[in-house]
Each structure stands twice: as C-alpha cells, then as structure tokens.
Fold each of these.
Amino acid sequence: MVSNKPHTDLRTVWVSLKKGADLIGLATLQFPSSEYKLVAPAFISNFAIKKAFQGQGLGSYLFEQIEHYCSDYGLRKIILESTAKNTAFWQAVGFVRNIQNPTVLFKLLPTKK
Ligand SMILES: CC(C)(COP(=O)(O)OP(=O)(O)OC[C@H]1O[C@@H](n2cnc3c(N)ncnc32)[C@H](O)[C@@H]1OP(=O)(O)O)[C@@H](O)C(=O)NCCC(=O)NCCS
C-alpha cells in the first residue's frame, strides 16, 4: 500500500543551553511517538556549542541531558550524522559508526527495568 503518511509520528524539540540570558549551545532532537519508541531511534541534528565555550565539557553536558531525556522517555537508540571534524566528539560520548554508512553514528541506550 502506498501512503504519504510517515511510518512514525516524529516530534521535534529544540534543546538549548544557556548561561544567564546568553544562548551558548543548542540542538534539535527528533523522536518517535510513544507507540514507536522501542523500534524507532531519536535523531540529533544542529548540535553546536558557541565557539568561545567549546572545549569545556559543555557539549558532553548538553548531550547527557538529551540522553537522559531519551532514556527516561523509553527510547533504545540515538542516531546522528557527523562531519569528520566532529566524529571524535561523538565517539567520546559513546557513539559508534554505522558500518554501512560511516557518516552515520549511533548510540544504544540501556533498557529501562
Ligand atoms: C563538536 C562540539 C559540539 C563539541 O563540544 P565541546 O563542548 O567543545 O566538547 P566537550 O568539551 O564536551 O568535549 C568532550 C570530549 O569530546 C572530544 N572532543 C571535543 N571536540 C573535539 C575535537 N574537535 N577533536 C577531537 N576531540 C574532541 C574530547 O575528547 C573531549 O574530551 P576531553 O574532556 O577528554 O577533552 C563543538 O566543538 C561544536 O559545537 N563544534 C562546532 C559545531 C558543529 O560542527 N557541531 C556538530 C554538528 S554534528
């Protein structure tokens, strides 16, 4: 059957990291509706820390907040696309390359008891 309806009902949220009133980091997180959370991954994009604040652990902190959110929601996997320049960061926070497509990285989340 052909349908224009997406297989999963994706929700999109913007995640921001602020210092006082200043925006110093942001990311976009897309995740499936509850019905698909055990089979469909979350997708991170537009992940960035403002240049003056890079190298201080804030990227790791922002990702940890996203990871906790995904884990608490009951998701099993996070995926993203990375440039070669940023792959070391994503590997440092636990991502591994997809063998079929090395620009895609994924991280499996522990199963909730
Ligand atoms: C990639 C980025 C998000 C990392 O954020 P950050 O706050 O600088 O990263 P952290 O300080 O939390 O670094 C965590 C670990 O990642 C690794 N890492 C971070 N940047 C790295 C780099 N450029 N090269 C190699 N390793 C890097 C380090 O191992 C670091 O661990 P350490 O504590 O041992 O140094 C940030 O540099 C950035 O916003 N870059 C530009 C925007 C961009 O291209 N975003 C990515 C889109 S996918």
Note: The radius of gyration is 15 Å.
Amino acid sequence: MITVRTERPVDTPARESLLNLAYGAERHTKPSARVRKARKPAGGLSFVALERGKMLGTVRLWHVNAGRRRPALLLGPLAVHPEHRNRGIGSRLVQHALTEAARLGHGAVLLVGDAVYYGRFGFSAEKTQGLRLSGADPARVLAVELNAGALAGAHGAITASGERERALPSLRLTKPRVRLVPRAA
Ligand SMILES: CC(C)(COP(=O)(O)OP(=O)(O)OC[C@H]1O[C@@H](n2cnc3c(N)ncnc32)[C@H](O)[C@@H]1OP(=O)(O)O)[C@@H](O)C(=O)NCCC(=O)NCCS
C-alpha cells in the first residue's frame, strides 16, 4: 500500500537518490532549480510516497513571487521511481500537495512542466501569460489558482521568496600557523 506523508529530515538521502535517478545531473541546471537554489522549501509542504518503507515518490513546494509582491508557490521537483510509474503515485503526490497548500491558505501554485500531465490537476498556461521564468519555455510555465483570482493580472518575473538556507560553516583548509618560540637556553 502506498502512503503519502510529510517529508522528515531522515528522508533527505533517499529523496536525493530518487531525484538523481529520475532526473540525473540535469536536475540542478533546470530553470526552476535555479529559483529553488539555496532556499528552504515552504513549511509543511514537502511530501514523500512510501511503500513498505521504501521511498517511491517525492514532491516539494517553494515560496515564490509571481511578479511583484504576488505570493505563490512553485511545485517541484516531482519524481516517481522509474520502476513504479503509472501506478498513480505522481497523481497522489500532486493532489496531496495541492490540498495541503489550499488548507494552509496559499492562493496559487506554479510549476514548469508538461501541460499534458499537469492539466489533469487543473494546471494550465492560461494564468501565466504575463509571467516569465528565466530560461523556461513559456508554454511549460503553468499555474493553478487555489483561490479564484489569486493570479489575476499577475505579470513579471517569477522569483524566489523563500527563506534562505543557512550557509555551511566554511572549512578551514589552511594549516593554522604555529609560531615557533625558541627555547630558552
Ligand atoms: C511524471 C511522473 C512524476 C509521473 O509519475 P507517475 O506516478 O507515473 O504518474 P501517474 O501514475 O499519476 O500518472 C501516469 C499517467 O501520466 C502520464 N504521464 C507521465 N509523464 C508524462 C509526461 N511527461 N507528459 C504527459 N503525460 C505523462 C502517463 O502516460 C500516464 O497516463 P495515463 O493516466 O493516461 O495512463 C514520473 O513519470 C516521473 O518521475 N518522471 C520523471 C521526472 C519528470 O519528468 N517529472 C516532471 C514531469 S513534467
């Protein structure tokens, strides 16, 4: 049985392996990846799908501005283990993510993806006509409103607005200098 639940810190290594498997190294160079870079995902909006303890799917949502001062969420990456596709896991994850986002009061969700797949959840390019995401094909920039009108008149760049990740403490790579003090005779 597939279970969908909120991601926990202990899930990070399995999530990263799954994303590498699904997208390869390209995952870090996608236009949407640049918006997520060095940001924390939106609180309570990262989910995993599990079966018998094994992670089979992942999705996260991120805070963005859809044009100036227009808060929204960005969905992605969505990935399902290659050996477990077409079982409805991706759909479960997207639907769960949208339901939780609406419950938490968010107005709209954007993503970069295939309209043929995401159309079934209500995503389309209709509400993103005035929006652009640097490097992304405009036809793949899709949105769904959770509150009707949340993206009305939205225009401009989609930019990151989430909390920044804390930088890792820099490692000390140089040897500490030791001052040799001549011994007293
Ligand atoms: C896209 C993805 C998350 C779908 O997960 P999934 O668990 O197989 O999806 P579901 O079982 O809910 O839905 C399967 C349906 O989506 C369709 N589908 C899957 N990927 C699709 C795509 N890129 N474009 C159009 N349709 C797609 C399947 O053909 C199937 O159609 P059907 O319902 O008519 O049979 C998964 O294929 C994946 O991880 N792909 C690699 C990463 C990726 O490309 N993610 C972003 C997609 S834009």
Note: Residues 89-103 form the longest helix (15 residues).
Amino acid sequence: MPAIVRIAAAALVLGLAGPALAAPAASPAPAPAAEAFSLAPLPYAYEALEPVIDAQTMRIHHGKHHQAYVNNLNTAVKASPALQGKSLEAILADVQNQPAVVRNNAGGHYNHTLFWTLMAPPGTGGEPSAALADRIRKDFGSIDAFKQAFQAAGAQRFGSGWAWLVWTGDKLVVTSTPYQDNPLMGDAPVKGAPIIANDVWEHAYYLKYQNNRGAYLSGWWGVLNWNQANRLFETATRKGK
Ligand SMILES: [Fe+2]
C-alpha cells in the first residue's frame, strides 16, 4: 500500500479524518421560548425567619406553592396571546376579564413576591418611618390600633386570603381579600398601593401554628420588614402628589 494511502486509512481508524469525512453536524435545536414569569430566590435563608416562621414552611411555601403559581401563570400566558408581553400589574388591572386561572395565579405570583420582601429576620426589620407612623396615627389613632385592625382583618378572613394595609391615594385602609385577590385587581373593592400584606392561607402557618391563626398573626409582627413598608409608602405617596 502506498504510504499516502496507509496514512489516510490510519487516520480514519483513529477518527482523525477532516471535516470532509466527518458526519454532518446536527442542526442546533431551537432555543425554548423564555417563560414570561419566573420565581426569584428568597432574599434570606429558609430558616432566617425562625422562630416566627419555620424553615420547612418557608421551603414549601416558596419552592412549591409560589413556584406552582408561577408555572400555572406561564402556562396560561402561553395559551392566551392577549396576555403575552404584559406586565404582571397590567394583567391584574384587567383580571376581571380573564378566566379564574389567570386571576388566581397572577394574584398568587404578585402577592407572594411582595410578601417575601415584607419579611425580614427577627430584629432586622426596623421601625415605621416618621411619615408612615404619622399617617398610621392619623388614620387609625395609634400604631397599636392599626395592628389590632390588621390582625382582625386577617383573623376574620374566612378560609384562605390576605390581610392588607393599602394606600388608597388619600388615606391608609386595612382590608382583606379572598384567595389570591389583591388591591391591584381591576374589580378590587379597595384599590390602591399595598404597603403591608400578610398571607393567611393555612399553608403560610399550619406546620407551626396548626389551627391557631391568631397566634401566627400576632407573632408575625416579629418578622415584618418595616423598612420595606416605609419604601412602599414613600413610593405610593410620592406618586399621588
Ligand atoms: Fe401563600
């Protein structure tokens, strides 16, 4: 065998053949379409809110419940061209014209995203700012009276829902909503900017507090992130001027 033929044969055996002899490359798979919404990591560790909220509750609440709202919302958006490209706030503003699956999961995603930021490890959440404290005293009489009203709203919400402190544009109001409804929804009875929100679904407290929602509500002040409430109030009132 001439030397050149021997070299070519050896190259084939060793897999050294050039591009002309290689199998054609497979065409690259199309990249999957980006999901419209995603679950952000918690801004603290799962165990960071103990002893008020236990790590297992936080792990399931964030990783399972909130993730399910995000997944279901993305599925609903894919099925509805009218929702594609819309912000979460825009979807909520028109949610009365959408099927229940959009209402429940857009609300669930918005509410939980807000809720995580409104909590902080015990001892780190700060105090109400002078502006927020003054406004609370004006609308409720005292900080304690506001807390009582907020806890009562959470306790009296039958079944699953949320307790809220809302800036309506000219005053602070305590209210509650069923399921995953919130004050941004187009048909909300009390519309406005959320300042404080607490989740009173059993999945938020049942592992530690069982049926004692009242103990969860009174203990929850220990993880309230007043610093975030102050920022939300500052933003909401600045917009209204
Ligand atoms: Fe929840």
Note: The beta strands are 161-167, 172-178, 193-199.
